[in-house]
């Protein structure tokens, strides 16, 4: 399998577009410091953002299913470093509370440590793979990406919008709130949140796009409509096809091709038949082929810098369900690291 370095991608683009679109080439040059031959893996065995036990076992299960070996098969030139798991102690909030935010003392502490680690991995010029854990960890991973590079576009691949605030969440589970916590346009919708002083909502909601939505709360629908958030639900995937959806998604959040990309990928975006071992599955989701295509196209931009893979819960389902879900997770992560399913035939083979 051929793996292109970032510099090789730039040279290839120059050959294809000539001098007609040198601004795009210049944009790629800006991100040469993310070296696709260097990959960093961060585990976050965290499950306090929701109520189902077992999702904290996700990073260990994904590793044991052969993640590093599968990535290494792409190329023997890959330099893969496993940074281990995030460890933290719950904060002592001294009785200060934020209403309807369960386990805040855990979320605030874990995501802060994760933010620092993601920034470290990116500063060391590596593609950062963050293994969850529940989707609350994206508060930390995206914040860490933003501290490394302020010009970030996020592709949020999920069955759910994760756009509730503490005043609108029906459950109080923080894994349903990360997008609302990160977006600067929604900062005024929040009260003071103890323990979260380190995190400032600085990314514009215009720089985020959803793919795979099919279970969205009424309040979340109102916010999506009010702010004109880019969203491609399963209806749009069915209508346009994943190729066109991915093209439109990238065009809307990064029309000039200059932003550093972050893909935050909830395994429940896949149909339950593809990934049954997850806590909030919804029928009618993406096929594994469609899910892999999203990762391939993000990598092919030459600007993918960070990926989250979350909500794999090996305690849910039969052993076959767990195997199938872990296999899907590894296929997605390998695609994000440069594995390409394209087969080139010579004239003699045709």
TrEMBL record:
Entry EC number(s): 3.5.3.1
Cofactor(s) the protein needs: Mn(2+)
One MF term in the entry's GO annotations: arginase activity
Cofactor remark: Binds 2 manganese ions per subunit.
Residues noted as binding Mn(2+) in the record, renumbered to the chain: 135, 158, 160, 162, 266, 268
Alphabetic keyword roster: Arginine metabolism, Hydrolase, Manganese, Metal-binding, Urea cycle
Example GO biological process: L-arginine catabolic process to proline via ornithine
InterPro entries: Arginase, Ureohydrolase, Ureohydrolase_dom_sf
Pfam families on file: Arginase
Keyword Manganese belongs to the record: yes
Catalytic function, reaction form: L-arginine + H2O = urea + L-ornithine
Pathway(s): Nitrogen metabolism; urea cycle; L-ornithine and urea from L-arginine: step 1/1
Enzyme class: hydrolase
Family, per entry: Belongs to the arginase family.
PANTHER family referenced in this protein's UniProt entry, alphabetically: ARGINASE
Protein name, UniProt field: Arginase
């Amino acid at each position: 399998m051929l793996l292109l370095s970032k510099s090789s991608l730039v040279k290839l683009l120059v050959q294809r577009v000539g001098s007609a679109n040198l601004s795009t080439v210049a944009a790629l040059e800006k991100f040469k410091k993310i070296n696709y031959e260097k990959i960093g893996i961060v585990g976050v065995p965290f499950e306090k953002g929701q109520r189902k036990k077992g999702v904290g076992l996700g990073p260990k299960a994904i590793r044991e299913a052969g993640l590093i070996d599968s990535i290494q098969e792409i190329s023997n030139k890959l330099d893969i470093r496993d940074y281990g798991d995030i460890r933290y102690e719950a904060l002592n909030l001294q009785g200060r509370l934020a209403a309807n935010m369960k386990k805040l003392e855990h979320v605030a502490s874990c995501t802060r440590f994760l933010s620092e680690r993601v920034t470290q991995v990116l500063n060391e010029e590596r593609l950062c793979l963050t293994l969850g854990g529940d989707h609350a960890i994206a508060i930390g991973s995206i914040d860490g990406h933003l501290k490394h590079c302020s010009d970030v576009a996020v592709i949020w691949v999920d069955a759910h919008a994760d756009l509730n605030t503490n005043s609108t969440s029906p459950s109080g589970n923080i894994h349903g709130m990360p997008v609302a916590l990160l977006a600067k346009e929604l900062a005024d919708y929040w009260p003071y949140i103890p323990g979260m002083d380190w995190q400032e909502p600085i990314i514009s909601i215009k720089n985020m796009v959803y793919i795979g939505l099919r279970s969205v709360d009424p309040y979340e629908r109102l916010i999506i409509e009010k702010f004109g958030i880019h969203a491609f639900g399963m209806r749009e995937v069915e209508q346009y096809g994943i190729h066109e959806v991915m093209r439109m998604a990238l065009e809307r959040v990064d029309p000039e091709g200059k932003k550093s990309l972050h893909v935050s990928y909830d395994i429940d975006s896949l149909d339950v038949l593809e990934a049954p071992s997850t806590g909030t599955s919804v029928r009618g989701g993406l096929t594994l082929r469609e899910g892999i295509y999203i990762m391939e196209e993000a990598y092919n931009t030459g600007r993918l810098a960070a990926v989250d893979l979350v909500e794999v819960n090996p305690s849910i389902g039969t052993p076959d369900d767990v195997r199938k879900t872990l296999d899907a997770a590894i296929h997605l992560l390998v695609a994000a690291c440069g594995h390409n399913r394209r087969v080139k035939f010579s004239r003699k083979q045709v």
